[in-house]
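Notebook entry, cofactor series.
This is the third protein in the set we're modelling with a bound small molecule. For this one the ligand is flavin-adenine dinucleotide. I'm keeping the input format identical across the series so the outputs can be compared line by line later. Sequence and SMILES below, as received.
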Amino acid sequence: MSTRARTYDAQVLRREQLSDHFVRVVLGGDGPAGFASTGIPDEWVGLVVPGQFQSRYYTVRSWDPAAGGAGELTLDIVVHEVGLVTEWARLAGDSIVGQTVTVSEPKGSFALPQDAGWLLLVGDLTALPAMARIAETSALPTRLWVEAPDPVEGYLPEGTDVRWSTPPGDGASSLAQVVEGIDWPEGDGYFWMAGESSQMRAIRKHLMREVRLPSTAYDVMGYWRGGAVRQPRAVDPGPIYRAGKAAGKSDAEIWADFDQAASDQAGEQ
Ligand SMILES: Cc1cc2nc3c(=O)[nH]c(=O)nc-3n(C[C@H](O)[C@H](O)[C@H](O)COP(=O)(O)OP(=O)(O)OC[C@H]3O[C@@H](n4cnc5c(N)ncnc54)[C@H](O)[C@@H]3O)c2cc1C
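Returned structure with ligand:
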């Protein structure tokens, strides 16, 4: 039996600029029929955009199974400097509308303990879709700290208790400092946080050593890695993927072709 996660092809129905650095992409068509939300508010899917076969993770901002016939899946994408998805999402105007992308089955991580009396959510712009969904569904007193180049007006539910801060630079984050300044509520609660990976590592240490939260009382996830210098891509996987698919090859065979092409290229340099 295959353990491969199910995937869904979907068409881009709409693209909307939410702020200078944030783009909404609404997916639909017949492809998502059968897509089932986990109901976990930070659920995410793997997204493969045209011409690529590596996926990147995006939070399901919303899934409306009744919209447009087979349902509409909304993803909100941070537009940063370079990257497979960011460069696609940045394409001007409606040029990506009508294109086909692939998404995987959703998975979630948020696990609120039954006795939680409060909720604290911290994250950068990549975590804003999850924080918004959690805030929309939470009945607990909830406080948010969001690090974003500019506030995204009207994105969070009205009346949300939120503090906005700006990142120290492009591809950088100082959320660890924000968390060190938190005045922790009394009693038991739940702390959810996501953002740049090295910040998340620092925060896990802080939660364990200083705040002394039990591991069931927090969920801290690295969503992206800052500081990595992008290597020029030696071999473009897009044409290899398309040729492999046209020849009816499996993903494993296409990966083998890609590895062979990369090693041939390395041998020539
Ligand atoms: C569970 C989960 C849920 C996520 N949900 C969302 C979401 O809803 N919306 C969203 O936008 N992102 C989300 N992310 C983060 C997203 O997957 C990464 O930012 C991803 O690397 C973006 O892919 P890319 O193709 O644009 O860039 P990549 O090709 O992966 O990276 C290229 C370069 O860009 C840098 N980079 C990557 N992301 C950023 C960034 N945000 N800011 C600055 N530099 C960056 C990397 O360091 C790398 O050097 C989520 C991640 C996870 C694990």
